């Protein structure tokens, strides 16, 4: 009965939240489609970027791979794992390096969206203790987790399962931390900005839904793909109810209750994810089906729709603007310069560091190429340089500048839950600007190579092109930063204003609905027009503040009047060409005959510190590692069916009283066996990469196996685990060996 109640509660809450959200999404879809078509017709672009943008992503590389220890919850032991981070930033864990080279199914796939990277067990215990109020281990009792080394790496999530790793040295820990943080940063940014209709419709629908619940301001869990974000939205409402209902029924010591609660939360999250995905996909398909007819109406009646919207806006403006201007003058205007200064200092330092790292890497490359053989060595160094923006360790000095971002008292005043939203956004801009600078440098140098004669010409050309690219970078980085500052100021101030104005304005908005023609009601919403009026009330002050910072040349910002016109009229035509393959074109190697050869030659961005399988120091729970007779995991059973995708079995085993009316039995939840993805071809692979040598001029060894490893889905990392014929057998809850570990799949 308890399990049935829980399943009904999950389905009911998910259905309720998704029902309300999908209504918001349908409304916002029409508005987003109208805005997209209007922008296409009218055009209103900003300054043209000077740097080229890489249109074909670098897909033939692995970010990092190496060994680290993972804690296996099923048998409470630490095991050595070989971890691969492919170009799509999924964490893929194999039994060992040999399993990776033989293309065996991975043990674990993790999409790290929403995770926090912790490097201290104390940090982790603090978060765990706060997740289940009233359940705290007594002093002197064993904590929920013990680490056998002083260098842990813990992936913590408020709803999903946690992952525990450790390494042997501080240097390894820093490198893995940088890699993991890059994975989180990339996966958090899971909603594609290339979509000009679906993406704004989705984010606006999430915002409108939360505002209907009186939740204004930034939201830390707006991370991952659309289904992950909606699952977080459901869990935000569902988890407190589960905690109140289930928490008191958990039995055992405090550590066991905490561990059981984490397992229940993870199983519920998986069920919510499956149900959310189905409902959201159906809503999106319905909107796509209606799109052609809506777009036809928009193009036919564009002028009338614009006239109708402007009439509505004028009426709302007359009602709202006087109140909004008073609110801005008293509560926002005095703080704009303080917020801007707090944003500008760390952001501009980060972009300055990007410039410095790029300059240093190109200068070092220039010296090494001249000293080691000219054009013959150029291909090797250019291939490394092309991956610079994706090198978490080299980029870390840029990213960590944003750690200085503190809004102090402003954070409480404007209801900003965390600065992480702004930090990650700025870091993503940094990576993009670095890649644009590198790609522009690559393109210009490639154009020059045919005209060069000797080392001296090459050296001078590299230096000259570097100076040209740096000038373009300075201009583009100024444009990107000014846009970021304006958007951040709006993100901070608009929710605050909406919350302040809601008691006097929101209840009166319904009377404006009659001003909208029924035929245009899908493209004009009173709520959106009201928010645009509120935005206009503060936009002038924000634009002025950013303009003054540029006029004063603060933090190397250019004035808006400074525009670089046609400095390189043919440069953007070069960017339309075929992507440059330095290895094939200039390394002197014969062209690869097969896809397998190309995969074998794939480069690794970050060089490996430790490639051999280490041994942990003696510690409680690690005895099996030190004994040669320790049982190893069984090979996956190809014929085993996947376990139930809704996570019911996991909850049944973790929930006390599911099968015992007395409610006294407590068992650990077994992990779910993955459900094969239907979105991704089963033959999708990640090229096997050998570690790039850290020493210049050293040849990169090829893999003897040359086999392609398994790749998570680009669209939804972690859903695909293996072809159907390679599914692991479902884990057995009673197993005490590694064979019970199974394959963990994250969303």
TrEMBL record:
Biased composition regions of type Polar residues, renumbered to the chain: 726-739
PROSITE patterns: PH_DOMAIN (PS50003)
Presence of the UniProt keyword Signal in the record: yes
Pfam families: Niban2, PH_Niban2
Signal sequence extent: 1-19
Domain PH, chain residue ranges per copy: 61-185
Record keywords: Signal
Region Disordered: start-end pairs: 625-747
This protein's record includes keyword Nucleus: no
Domain of life: Eukaryota
Family, similarity comment: Belongs to the Niban family.
PANTHER family recorded: NIBAN FAMILY MEMBER, PROTEIN NIBAN 2
Protein's UniProt name: NIBL1 protein
Native species: Himantopus himantopus
């Amino acid at each position: 009965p308890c399990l049935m109640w829980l399943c009904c509660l999950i389905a009911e809450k998910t259905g309720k939240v998704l029902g309300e959200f999908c209504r918001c999404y349908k409304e916002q879809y029409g508005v987003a489609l109208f805005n997209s078509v209007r922008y296409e017709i009218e055009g209103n672009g900003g300054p043209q970027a000077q740097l080229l943008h890489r249109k074909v992503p670098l897909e033939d590389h692995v970010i990092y791979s190496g060994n680290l220890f993972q804690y296996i919850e099923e048998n409470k032991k630490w095991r050595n794992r070989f971890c691969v981070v492919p170009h799509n930033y999924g964490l893929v864990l194999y039994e060992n390096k040999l399993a990776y080279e033989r293309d065996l199914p991975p043990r674990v796939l993790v999409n790290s969206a929403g995770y926090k990277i912790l490097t201290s067990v104390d940090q982790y215990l603090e978060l765990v203790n706060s997740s289940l109020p009233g359940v705290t281990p007594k002093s002197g009792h064993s904590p929920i987790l013990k680490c056998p080394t002083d260098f842990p790496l813990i992936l913590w999530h408020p709803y999903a399962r946690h992952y525990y790793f450790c390494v042997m040295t501080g240097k390894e820990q820093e490198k893995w931390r940088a890699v993991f943080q890059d994975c989180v940063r990339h996966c958090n940014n899971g909603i594609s900005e290339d979509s000009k209709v679906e993406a704004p419709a989705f984010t606006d629908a999430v915002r409108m839904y939360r505002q209907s619940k009186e939740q204004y301001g930034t939201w830390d869990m707006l991370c991952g793909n659309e289904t992950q974000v909606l699952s977080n939205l459901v869990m935000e409402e569902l988890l407190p109810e589960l905690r109140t209902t289930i928490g008191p029924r958990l039995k055992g010591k405090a550590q066991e209750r905490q561990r059981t609660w984490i397992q229940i939360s993870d199983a519920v999250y998986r069920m919510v994810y499956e149900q959310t995905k189905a409902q959201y996909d159906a809503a999106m398909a319905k909107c796509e089906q209606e799109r052609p007819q809506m777009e036809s109406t928009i193009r036919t009646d564009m002028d009338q729709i614009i006239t109708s919207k402007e009439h509505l806006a004028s009426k709302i403006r007359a009602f709202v603007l006087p109140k909004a201007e008073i609110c801005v003058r008293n509560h926002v205007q005095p703080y704009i310069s303080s917020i801007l200064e707090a944003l500008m200092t760390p952001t501009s330092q980060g972009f300055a560091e990007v410039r410095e790292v790029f300059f240093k890497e190109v200068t070092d490359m220039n010296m090494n190429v001249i000293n080691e053989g000219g054009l013959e060595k150029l291909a090797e160094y250019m291939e490394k340089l092309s991956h610079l923006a994706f090198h978490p360790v080299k980029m870390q000095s840029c990213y960590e500048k944003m750690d200085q971002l503190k809004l102090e008292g402003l954070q409480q005043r404007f209801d900003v839950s965390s600065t992480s939203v702004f930090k990650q956004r700025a870091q993503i801009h940094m990576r993009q600007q670095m890649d644009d600078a590198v790609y522009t440098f690559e393109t210009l140098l490639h154009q020059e190579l045919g005209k060069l004669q000797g080392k001296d010409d090459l050296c001078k050309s590299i230096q000259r092109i570097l100076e040209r690219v740096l000038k373009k970078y300075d201009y583009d980085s100024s444009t990107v930063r000014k846009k970021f500052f304006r958007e951040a100021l709006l993100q901070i101030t608009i929710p605050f204003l909406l919350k302040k104005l809601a008691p006097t304005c929101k209840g009166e908005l319904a009377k404006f609905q009659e001003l909208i023609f029924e035929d245009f009601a899908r493209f004009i919403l009173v709520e959106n027009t009201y928010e645009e009026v509120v935005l206009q009330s503060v936009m002038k002050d924000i634009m002025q503040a950013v303009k003054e910072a540029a006029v004063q040349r603060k933090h190397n910002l250019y004035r808006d009047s400074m525009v670089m016109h046609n400095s390189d009229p043919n440069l953007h035509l070069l960017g339309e060409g075929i992507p440059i393959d330095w290895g094939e074109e200039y390394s002197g190697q014969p062209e690869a005959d097969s896809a397998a050869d190309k995969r074998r030659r794939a480069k690794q961005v970050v060089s490996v510190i430790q490639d051999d399988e280490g041994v942990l120091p003696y510690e409680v729970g690690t005895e099996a590692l030190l004994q040669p007779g320790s049982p190893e995991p069984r090979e996956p059973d190809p014929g085993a069916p996947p376990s139930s995708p809704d996570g019911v079995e996991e909850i049944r085993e973790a929930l006390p009283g599911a099968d015992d009316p007395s409610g006294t039995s407590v068992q650990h939840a077994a992990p779910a066996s993955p459900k094969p993805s239907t979105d991704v071809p089963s033959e999708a692979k990640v090229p096997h990469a050998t570690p790039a040598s850290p020493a210049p001029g050293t040849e990169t060894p090829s893999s003897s196996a040359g086999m392609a490893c398994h790749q998570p889905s680009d669209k939804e990392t972690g859903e695909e685990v293996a072809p159907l014929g390679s599914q692991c057998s479902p884990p057995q809850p009673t197993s005490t060996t590694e064979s019970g570990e199974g394959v963990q799949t994250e969303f």
